[in-house]
Amino acid sequence: MHDLKSIRDDPAAFDRGLARRGVAPQAEALLALDVARRDTQTALQEVQARRNAISREIGQAKASGAPTDALTAEVASLKDRLPVLEADEKRLGDDLERLLAALPNLPADEVPDGADETGNVEVRRWGTLRAFNFPVRQHFELGEALGLMDFSTAAKLSGARFVVLRGALAHMERALGAFMLDLHAREFGYTEIAPPVLVNSETMFGTGQLPKFADDQFRTTDGRWLVPTAEVPLTNLAADTILDEAALPQRFTAFTPCFRLEAGAAGRDTRGMIRQHQFSKVELVSIAHPDHSAAEHERMTSIAEAVLQRLGLPYRVMLLCAGDMGFTARKTYDLEVWLPGQGTYREISSCSVCGDFQARRMKARFRPAEGKGNRFVHTLNGSALAVGRTMVAILENYQTGDGGITVPDALRPYMGGIDTIGA
Asked: Which residues are annotated as catalytic?
């Protein structure tokens, strides 16, 4: 959500920020609604004040024996006008809220311009691409040949974009989640959370999934939503709270199933585990002081990178351009892991700083140690990592000539010491 005061102060800057996101100018429409609402509020206050004054005047007139007919008629007129003004104020406020809620966050100054992924900028690379002396297979070819990745049975159970993992690969999914959680909680100071994966509409609104992306989500018959990412419940732990400044930053991590309709992904990644309706992910969320959120963003990104480095998976870090960032993001780094089966880098993590955009929607604030007034916190989120895509990367980067998979050293303690998944 955007700060109306900042839009009033510099509407041109607001529209320039939206233009970088490919959104038409909105400041004029917003400010017109804002003026109309404030004028209505003023009129409402004046009517309420006049009604109270007349009540006193009627009392004084009765005490002095003066006529009260004109005053009584005015009271009746004001009573008729009050509900009209109240309804107008609510309608204008709702219209303003709807317009603001549909607008994306503004990009940070250092975010490059661009309309889509072609405008993203590579920041750095890590790792050496492995040279194979045998034909390289994609993950689904390896998994199906091993008898451990079953898409046809999943299709019978649930439809397209699901998978049944068996044996060692089912174990690997669980092992990856445990490995990542231990790394984040034990080494990097995140508090492990086991959150609900069914949430209400207010929670989805707080992190920006609603109302704009309702068609991308799974909804239950009683009006709850299956979370598209643990970012939703983790970030909302700070909703409707006023934290002490000394309590910041707060850092949370969770390993949860995630659910996405992938409504806009028709024809994309139809085979394999890259884009599914249900997948597991380890999420990182930070609730930070505004002065420290930029540094927290760099820290969070480095922690997501640490997972890939421990697993020995080559990757690159991309700074997303303004037109390719998510709705709530102010600045985003994507980590793209090398997939030799596809011969390309694919996204495995997004780490974003959202400024106070989500905090305004959630009413998440902190009490400064010095000075007066509460301030909005800054929120950050990052995948560290998407477990299914990490498994895809392991299968393709650690495949052997006979169709087997070498288990990365860091993962072996979590898989009972197994070093190879045999053909």
From this structure: 260, 275, 347, 350, 389
